[in-house]
Amino acid sequence: MRALALLGALLAALLLASATPATAHAALRGSDPADGAVLKSSPRSITLTFTESVGLLDDSFRVYDPTNHRVTTGDAEHGPAGSDTARITFPKKLGTGTFTVAWRIVSADSHPISGALTFSVGKPSATRATVATGPGENPVTDSLYNIGRYVAYAAVALLIGAVAFMAVCRPPDPAPLRRPVRAAWWTLLASTLFLFILRSPYEEGTSPATAFDLSALAKSATGRPGLALLTRVALLALTAALYLVLRKRVNGARPSRPLLATAAVLSIALALTWAAAEHASAGIQVPLAMTSSVLHLLSMALWLGGLTALLITLQRSATPLPAAVVTRFSRVAFAAVTVLVGTGVYQSWRGLGSWQALTDTSYGRLLLLKLAAVALLLAAASQSRRWTAKLATAPAVPTPDRVPLPVGAPAPANPPTAENPPPAAEPSPLGKPSPLGKPSSPDEPPATTPTGRHQAALRRSVLTEVAVGVAVLGITTILTGTLPGRAAAEAAESGTASGTTGIPAAAVAVVPFDVGTPNGHGKVQITLDPGRVGANSVQAVAFGPDGGISSVPELRLSFTLAAQKIGPLPASVTDRGGYWAADSVNLPIAGEWTMTVTVRVSDLDQVTVTKKIRIAA
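Request: output the structure for the sequence above.
Response:
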């Protein structure tokens, strides 16, 4: 158990240390106006279309004019095409030049996504807003939210699995499981409330300090993910009441059918709170996907949670565990694994969309890692089934009959010896001795006491299963926060950028300079359009100490890719009346280029500075 606790802590640390902006499950399919479009007149609105339905935030759109001032717009709303669109309206006259639109929405499976695009009215301007995607992911909020999701998965697995183990497998002494079940219930409740409180900062990309704002909590309560979390809290209250009833009635006896049916309904309802707010709630075949997701989560809980309950019972039970208990769990685990494989195959097909996505996308590579871990888990499960079969047929451990005598009483006249053995137990119909001298039922495995060697081997095998299962759970948590291959392919086909970083339509860099004289400092904003391999147009604007556009007598620019020993490649920029520009600069290879900028502010004063800029493929 200490090893399992350490493994869980390491997985939590991995989630915290490797936290990057969450890769959401929606992707931008297109926009109207299109990214980079040049329009003859001001558009009345802009509409974004995504690969799945999206939710809108109070600040879903921010529009900036060429001078980096925010434009007043209408409220964000869904377009006429449906909930997979987002739209805002513009003032009647935007003016001319290049406008930047930064957007942030929440995909149907609860993950935020953001990005940016540009369009121009009249013609592209020499200057444009430097903002790209709006608020990024807060790393602390993102890490805490991911850890909360992992803890909730682990808690629901233990809660459902352990209660099912007590109700179906009927261990003679369920006392060792009562504390873990209570701990799982409280942990699931705490993690659910924790996720609800963090929901608004997670969507907005803000600090956890904003979580306790009353307006933020009210907004979380109206969204689908927040409603699912609140529903989970209500279901946990009903689950606690049901557990108290089961605890009184389950002491090695089979619970009544109404109790089992009620427990099954509550388990399905709990699983639905995940399916309704995550991966299965968006994309293709939603009803079938949600059904598959519920079955997948329940079978995972029955297997991994039941394994944990079996391990705890094996380790803490005061008496050896009857083989019948292990055999019942083996049947349940086999059925759960069968459902896991079937639903897992369907969900993999639904998320990938093609064989190529298995190796070309992060989702596919994570899925391969999960499949390898599941294969290892199945191998450990196979070993456990073999030990279970041996336990079911193992003979009872012989123990001498002892008759209690009063203190000081004389020993029996004819004690059992090799020549005078005790009377044999009455044989059972199966031909094996019953420890109580009564025939065993043909419907149940022999009620024998397992040998110590077999039980120790089963305990080690189950421990291996649980350890690998914890790792599978961690991989699954990361996988549910990764853009599926199908959505990535749709975004690639439409030629749009997707994800939370939102690649702008052009590469923009701001280069500070200072010649060392009074008022001899400022910055140069350099824009490469489209910022990719091949021909790029270049615009460079100099700003003075006061932030206003400054006319400089000379500006030179060149590009060097030191890693490939290319350059310097001069960009023959010319003065275009307030800004410097070149119509075409060919950058042949993707990578991090070094720009060398020489700025002359007078006949005698000039300075040369460098700045890195990334050119995409």
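The first helix runs from residue 2 to 17.
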